Structure formats: C-alpha cells, structure tokens
Amino acid sequence: MMERRENIIAKKSEDFGDRIVNMHKYLSQKRQGNSDILKQIVRSGTSIGANVAESKFAQSEADFLTKLTIALKEANETKYWLNRLYGGNYLTDKEYQSIINR
C-alpha cells in the first residue's frame, strides 16, 4: 500500500485561515478595524483553504487548475485587505509581519 504524504498546501492554507479568523475575533473584540474590511478578509482568507480542499476532488485537470488559481487570487485579495488594515493602523508592525510572513 502506498503511503500518503501530507499535503503541505492544504495544511498551510488551513492554518492561515485559522489565523485570519483569530485576527478577526481579536480585532472585533477590541472594536478595532473596519467591519467591512474584516468581513472581506475573513471571506477571502478562508476561501483559500476551501478552494484547495475542493481541488482534491477535481473532476479534471482543468478543474484542478481552476480551483488552485482561484485560491491564488483569494490569497492576493487577502494580502490587499491585510495591507489596508496595516495602512489604517489597525495592525501593529509586529502583528502585520507575523501574519504576512508565514
């Protein structure tokens, strides 16, 4: 029987989604952050992992590539929203670096 290796992309996208959810919870509890931006970043930040998960059961190679391309686009959008939170001084340098460099 062939041993299955851990899917590092799936693991990292799930961990990142958890970090985004926790950041949303943290900023919401402190009543910091624009609520519209926070909604957007949770949507895009968790969509990365959702699309990677969907790619595991793609119906074709084209479907697989489409799901991963969408995940990449969601990652880019999430970076945009993180930059807006940082630029708006809702995230400290340390908080921003912690999430952007992982």
Molecular structure report:
α1 runs antiparallel to α2 (35-55) and α2 (35-55) packs antiparallel against α3. This protein starts with 7 loop residues before the first helix and ends with a helix. It is built from four helices and no strands. It is mainly alpha-helical and 102 residues long. It has helices at 8-29, 35-55, 61-87, 93-100. 76% of the residues lie in helices and 0% in strands. The model has no long low-confidence stretch (mean pLDDT 92).
Q: N-to-C terminal Cα separation, in Å?
A: 34 Å
Evaluate the radius of gyration: 15 Å
Largest sheet, strands/sense/barrel = none
What is the overall shape?
A: elongated
Helical amount: over 70%
Brief description of this entry?
By secondary structure, this protein is an all-alpha fold. The protein contains 4 helices and no strands.
What topology emerges from the helices and strands here?
Layout lengths: L7 H22 L5 H21 L5 H27 L5 H8 L2
Helix pairs in contact: 1-2, 2-3
Highlighted features:
102 residues, mainly alpha
